[in-house]
Amino acid sequence: MDFFDMFLNVGFWAATVRMATPLIFGTLGELICERAGILNLGIEGIMTTGAMVAWMWVYQGGDLWTAVLVAALFGMLFGYLHSIFSVYMGLSQHVTGIGITLLATSLSYYSFRMLLPGVTTPPKIIPFQPLPIPLLSDIPVIGEAFFTQSPLTYLAFVLVGVVAYILYRTPVGLAVRMVGENPMAVEVQGIDVYKVRTGAVMVGSAFMAVGGAFLTISVFDAFYFDMINGRGWICVALVIFASWRPGKALLGAVLFAAFDAIQIRVQQSSASFIPYQFFLMMPYVFSILALIIMSRKAAYPKALLVPFRRGQR
Amino acid sequence: MQLEPRTHTPLWMTISAPIIAVFVVMILCSGLILWAGAPLLQSYVALAKGAFGSKFAIAETLVRATPLILTGLAAAVAFRAKLWNIGGEGQLYMGALAATYFGTGMINLPAPLMIPFLFVVGAIAGGVLLLIPALLKTRLNVDEVVTTLLLNFVILLLANYLLFGPWKDPMAMGWPQGAPIIDEGILPKLVAKTRLHGGLIFAVLASISVWVVMTKTKWGLEIRAVGLNQEAASFAGIPINKTIIRTALISGGLAACAGVTEVAGTKEYLTLDISPGFGYTGIAVAMLAGLNPLGVIVAALFIAGIYNGADSMSRAMDVSNYIADVITAASLLMVMLAVMLTRMRIRFS
């Protein structure tokens, strides 16, 4: 296959959009948290939890959309737990985040083992089916690639606009951005910094959990251990790459997914002489490279990682 | 609700804080055991017996504690300087790879030289691996949390490639494992008929050395000063970047030594499962120990006991052994809370 033919291939673009979806959810979620000044390293574990509970909900006979809600709810729960430590207690966000990831992951695995004891091959469910959008999906090539996707994928793209609108055009968004830049100024306005930060972390965590759920109830039809496989950490890198802007986050996620799709196709066609493990390294190496390129001029939210304690300066 | 700093923290509070935290975690995790339908008291008895109940159990717990002491030290040293090294897992595998490369026949030395040589090359490999994120942090302002985390995946894939490819032992019946470490490189057994090996002595000596360096030397002072207040440290004439790089080399080297003890001591050859997350668990060990290098030994023994105890509890009681991961993660969070409450008091208004 000629390298450039790939870009004219419908399957390639469809795969790119599909693979971008969990990254969009995760990156948006992390972005919301960080805009409020809280680095949420619970993301990897929260995505695992979302993947597990959504799948389990459907497996136990639940409905797909309710499963998305359940995942979001569990995400908020862990987000709340994170904010007790990071917002109210003002503890190190790095270590609490890793703690939340370890806790959420182990609890998910434990619950999975408890609910399905002695299962060796993961049972399957019927996941979301592609939903062709009327008229748009009839456009040749583009229709098939972009408008015959899972409903959750459309949701992810719509949410980018919603998050951008809320962040930049509403009082709530202003409050979220301000607690990430100058919490003292927000407090002076009579707004509770703790509540705004907690809210942002909870909503962001819900996004992450839905991103995880997408993997088990849309792309795949089963839950595997270790299936998040560093996607959460890649999202943390993408937020920096995106300079904390939702639009750029979307761009970053799609670009990243495109690289991933290229990598898989090259791996399949060239095979033999380059070992497949080196292709699997690509996403992580790309993330590091993206960080190196962008970090120089990264405009971090000023109060990111700075705990706020009322009555202290 | 408001937090106020305490003017004075009594010693009993500092010592009892982690103990109380662990106790609270045990109570919370009882819910999970009850959910599994197992009798609570017997389950905890089974856990304790599996951890420390017999000579064999104690030996196994010590074997498991050995790498945890080293990864715990790695995290403790780095976190003191606020260098967030979450890459212990990758550094561990880097050390294991180096030990395999040099220890499987490439170089032949008598045992008293071979064993230290393996630790040295392992430590260099791990230190160099952490040097990359450290340099990116000091030179280009790249956040080290994400880079160390991502490098874990890269190194695991590298190990995967080597063990399925060029380093695969043809004598291993198709299993992806490295060639055995030569006899001169194997850490001597400490107790007959157990797996307990000399790695434990190395780990304890490492703890003591790190404690001495951190509390009694200029290097240690510099590392702590950079962690406490970079600006102040800079005014005091401490070279910040140099200190961070030095911390990274020490921390990465320590984590890599855990890989050496596993390859040259516990397994005697490299596999892809030499570490069930020792690198990540080391963070919990370090926090449980309050970042104190000597406390790391106690914390590692506790965590190792929990893991081995949970294994035997899961065999006896049908409680999934993932409970050990839950207890570890919950302890990590709870201890942070407890330690903070020794420094702050909560005032409700």
Average pLDDT of chain B, rounded to a whole number, is: 93
Question: What structural class do the secondary elements of chain B suggest?
Answer: mainly alpha
Helical residue percent band of chain A: 55-70%
Q: What is the domain tally of chain B?
A: 1
Q: Which sequence of strands runs across the widest sheet of chain B?
A: 1-2
Detailed description of the structure:
The complex is a heterodimer of chains A (313) and B (349). By secondary structure, chain A is an all-alpha fold. Chain A has twelve helices and two strands. Chain A has a single domain (8-116, 134-295), classed as ABC transporter involved in vitamin B12 uptake, BtuC (Orthogonal Bundle). Chain A has helices spanning 10-35, 43-59, 64-88, 93-115, 142-146, 151-169, 171-181, 183-188, 193-219, 231-241, 246-270, 276-295; strands spanning 131-132, 148-149. In chain A, α1 packs antiparallel against α11, α2 packs antiparallel against α3 and α6 (151-169) packs antiparallel against α11. Chain A starts with 9 loop residues before the first helix and ends in an 18-residue tail after the last helix. Chain B has one domain: ABC transporter involved in vitamin B12 uptake, BtuC (Orthogonal Bundle), CATH 1.10.3470. Chain B is 72% helix and 2% strand. Chain B has a two-stranded antiparallel sheet with strand order 1-2. Chain B starts with a strand and ends with a strand. The model of chain B has no long low-confidence stretch (mean pLDDT 93). The chains are: A mainly alpha (313), B mainly alpha (349).
